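Revision sheet: structure tokens.
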Amino acid sequence: MHAYRTHKCNELRKSDEGGTVRLSGWIHKIRDHGGVLFIDLRDTYGLTQCVIEEGSELLKTVEKWRNESVITVTGKVVARSEGTVNAKMPTGEIELQIEEAELQGAADVIPFQVADADGAGEEIRLKYRYIDLRRQSMQDKIRLRNNVIATLRKNMWEKDFQEFQTPILTASSPEGARDYLVPSRLHPGKFYALPQAPQQFKQLLMMSGFDKYFQIAPCFRDEDGRADRLAEFYQLDVEMSFVTQQEVHDTIQPVIEGLFNEFADFTGEKRRVEWLPNLAYKDAMLKYGSDKPDLRNPLEIVDVSEVFARPDVEFKAFKGTVEKGGVVRAIRCPNVADQPRSFFDKLNSWAQGEGAPGLGYVLFEGGEGKGPIAKFIPAAAQDAIKDISGCTDGDAIFFVCNMEDKAAKFAGLARDAICDALPEGHEFAREQGVYKFCWIVDFPMYEFDEATQKIDFSHNPFSMPQGGMEALESKDPLDVYAFQYDAVCNGYELASGAIRNHKPEIMEKAFGLAGYDKSVLEKEFGGMLNAMRYGAPPHGGLAFGIDRMVMLLADEPNLREVYAFVMNGQYEDQMMSAPNDITPEQLTDLHIKLNLPKKAVKSEEAA
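Predicted:
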């Protein structure tokens, strides 16, 4: 007989009755029923109920063992009596009568329960992550992650993509986020950077003659943490040669659709997958107030600035802003005349909580507009608003007024807040049971940075401008679009990509418009620029965030819940005590002296 197990804890059935078997696992629960001891034994595959009968010599020893101790038990498989069968367990028709028991690994008193949800907070769960990962829900999500990656690999191999591994230690480059830097011992004063993405390497592979690349790529960005963003993350990174934007979409879309269809029932509720028509960036910002709109929300935003610019409208709060170049955005919310006043008051309070004066609205009822600001909008202007928005009796329309960028973003937030405030079952409540995908296309190549008061790249600096060199030379930079695209789903950006700029002269011009001197370009991106000068194919690609896809499939709003080992929101690994101090000898080897902020120095002295 095997030293540890003849069966896994999910395998025994009534057909095994009478056999002598051996199981190993963790004590999930231990229960004393008047001298008869029941143990639910768990391994990663399932549970088996084991029993020590009254009078057994093992009782005095085993009753001292704690939950989560690792044990090996040997005994006979017996059928449970009719009244004790547990139909919810695959092994529920049998139990194991323990004849031998060995303690393999004793457990101390555990900091939180594994068998039962006890509301343990994230900090303690991350500190004892190895215990947290024993929970069935966590094991399910980690297996889901494994299966998602396996499916992605299989699908990419079937499409004739080759898998590569690109360097982890590389050069720092200005790609939008802060780099994690690694000091070089052999080159004092110089640093490697951990890759924000394998961007340059995958483009260099296309210039090396490989036609189809993919990688399950680790990426690192030194940005502040939040629920849907981590310092270290993984993405399905893809690049292809001699392709148009549409061909990139047509190639990768079936991979992602297939993935979501395969795992759409993970939560127990089968969800359908819909891929909606492409949406231009400017239309997304106007209609939804976001470049990653949740299209399950049917509410749309319209521009009603022209109404408040009319001479017969004297609502100064809006009119003054419009005269200064601002806009008024409006969100129609149908069929809410029967909602209580609290519905509108809560939305007003929400807006105030977001830093706005409130959320003005007009409710159309009985052929006229009602509400706090209706009296400032003449009947003719109200009719114009109805024509633009499609409002009819019973509908409300909510207003946001500010300069265009701020108005668009706040209207997007308001659109979601209004939808979420609708009662369950309302025809315009957020749609459930569906993954709604869409490509956002035609991103502007440049944007005006208010902080620096200059033009900079709005997205990926390596993108090909629509119209090529001619567009860069003849158009206002803010009017130039790029072959850039994002894939969004249910309010999350899942992918970002572009057709790349493969011509050095266009790259020099594009960076020049953003204020980068040619010498800076040569220093920061010289390797790729030189490669372009030796024959670069047209190419493009994208990267899908694996973590966010798993998060959506698991219906889990926090990325930290779909990783085995992860840091907290302050990027601290409390289990491994990272980041930690290093020794003076290590600093000497790296030729580094610390220049800590005063607060950190005082904290160290106090310690």
